[in-house]
Amino acid sequence: MQVIYQEGNSLLHRLNPLTKVVALVPVVLFVALTNDPWLPLAFIALASTVIVGLARIAPRTFWRIQAPLMISLLVFMILYPFMVRAELFNHTPVVLRLGPLVLYQGALLAGTASVLRVYAMLLLSLIFMLTTDISDFIRAMVQQWHFPYRLGYGVLAAFHFVPLLQEEFRLIQAAHRIRGIETQGGAKAQAERLRRYLLPLLTSAIRRAERTALAMESRAFGAFRQRSYFRRFRFDRTDYLFIICFWLLCLIVIGLFWLTGWMGPLSFTKEL
Q1: 210-238 burial by CB neighbour count: b if 16+ within 10 A, else e?
Q2: Between these two residues, 93 and 55, which has the higher pLDDT value?
Q3: Predicted TM-score (pTM) of this structure
């Protein structure tokens, strides 16, 4: 999350982190129940508009973040029709036949719907991830949802360790290059270099963990059931207004698709 997070001063950046969780989770769960390709496509457009418009994420940055995801989903969509059991879709028309490989129309539509559904869910999740600092999210959970602060701040400390250890790893690599250790070679050489990197990296991680533990202990961390906070998180009118407006917009989209008959059956109604 901290890697994907983009700093900014948009409306979504200023919202309470829990506001975005409350607004997005029901919508993501609903999209997970869809079976047709059209409704997820509408939520893809909605999520993209919110990210570029309300969150003020540059289109180039948005594309750079989601490009690997799109490539992975495209590969899955191409392979899915050939990997599923033919008995599930052999009653549908044949679109393509390449020797033993047969592409059925039903398998193609099912693969497309699955990819669009996953893509829509991930783009909706990006609304939260691109505009929410993990530190603010954990602090809000501790203050408002009574998440145990010992666990919360422990997770927060672990997240802060990641960039420090990455920088330490780069320094160790540079030190090895200065000493003339080759950076090329096969798998065996790579494994040997990794073994040499791990010992100083582990030593540095233990040293940093000890210093962090001493600092937390000196501040009486965990000694009291409640803690004081420099910054308080709470819901205000803007948060409630965003939740209501976002839900209403999603309900309008769902209602239009339902009235026009383009929504299709949901997963739990398909079994009834």
Answers
A1: eebeeeeeeeebeeeeeeeeeeebeeeee
A2: 55
A3: 0.77
